[in-house]
Amino acid sequence: MTWPRWTPRQRPPRRRHRLRTLLVLGLVAVLGLVGLAAGGVWWGTDHYGDKVTRIPHAFPTEPRPPKPSGHDGGETFLLAGVDSRSERPTTGNDATADLWRHGAQRSDTLMLVHLDGDGRAARAMSLPRDSWVPIPGHGTAKINAAFSWGGPPLLIRTVEQLTGVRVDHFGVIDWHGFRSLTDAVGGVPVTIARTTYDPEQNRRFTAGTHVLNGEQALAYVRQRHGLPGGELDRIKRQQQFLRSLVGEIRDDVELTDPFGLDRTLDAITGTVSVDDELSNADLRDLVLDLRHLRPADVTFTTAPIVGSQMIEGQYALLLDRSELRAQWRAVETGGN
What we know:
This protein is an alpha+beta fold. It has a single domain, classed as Nucleotidyltransferase, domain 5, CATH 3.30.420. The protein is 35% helix and 22% strand. The chain has nine helices and 15 strands. It has helices spanning 27-33, 38-49, 145-163, 175-184, 214-222, 231-252, 258-271, 280-290, 321-333, and strands spanning 53-55, 75-82, 107-115, 122-126, 132-134, 140-142, 169-174, 188-192, 196-198, 203-205, 208-212, 273-275, 298-302, 305-311, 314-319. A seven-stranded mixed sheet has the order 1-12-7-2-3-4-13, with helices on both faces. The protein has a two-stranded antiparallel sheet with strand order 5-6. A two-stranded antiparallel sheet has the order 8-11. Mean pLDDT is 76; it is low at 2-39.
């Protein structure tokens, strides 16, 4: 792949008229808002919260899992990146196409994020897209088919049934948003341990530290062909990228740089869609609770996997469901 001609740690010039976008996964939206200090939070969350696109009827109507005894009082988000092939944005207030149409989109990235009740830590677990799981009303299939077949309600129901976790809020971003938010923060630095070639995308990723623009970043987090661990290595890349992106967003939303703050929050609200139960007051509370959260306070893991096999002609990952449930119960109760 051809890299831009700036030095590894140098940022490309920022353009005044960047496309707004992304929240690769709700976590970024929440952490992006963290930069608002208490003095501006009341105006800021209403001003920017009103711009956030809400998804009506995002949650399933069927009975849902209860919170476990000893719950820490925190909240759990299900965050999805969708691989819509639409030429137009499908998420955020920049969207000009439907978020979901039957068979048109699949969830390319899935992550459960639990924000501790004291706002001092967050735990994120990736759910591999190739996980072979029960999908209510559809038998068993890869987990990424749930969004394709039933939109947010079926995806949330599938994840809740799999994990035993009650999802409090849902956030989604598409490829357009991912590229745009990356550009809005001036690119995101990543360190590539070894040179790889992706035959599917016909791109080469050169070892070293690079600042990736939106197009390069999307190619980077999508690569699985040419990586020794395939899908699991791709998940590691996504987590690495998110941690670095959070750091870039925090740098941009310092109140000493009001233009950076406005630019980044515009990008987030322009690209992410969330459930309609996440009110502006909820956003304000998140800002107040999480304003001290740093990228180092976020722990990333991947759902426990026991093996892989070909099922119905598809490569599938098999999860340890008992261990998955046990891990999330520990997350929600602080290990008690």
